[in-house]
Hints:
The chain contains 5 helices and 3 strands. By secondary structure, the protein is α+β, with helices and mostly antiparallel strands.
Amino acid sequence: MSVLAKSIRKKLNSLKPTYLEIQNESHMHSVPPNSETHFKVILVSEEFNGKSRIARHQVVNNTLAEELSGPVHALSIQAFTQYEWQKRDGYVAPSPNCRGKEEHS
């Protein structure tokens, strides 16, 4: 795991996740090899109980403000309560390639 991914994990651990997955999706975008600019976060936490989807994203964005103001260009946030996570049986749809990725590969 990269230094940046470790930093993201450490900060998101403050939300007391029951499940946390951090995926570097930079390779799916038109960026140089080994980039760390596009991430997907799958986060399950009771901290999200009673919060709208927008409020959950705001919590994550505020937690990762430093990363989002610098090295992270894009962040896909999949934020669930434990109940929602169980209801969907832990399934999160895979992210598509960036439009134009095929052209620049």
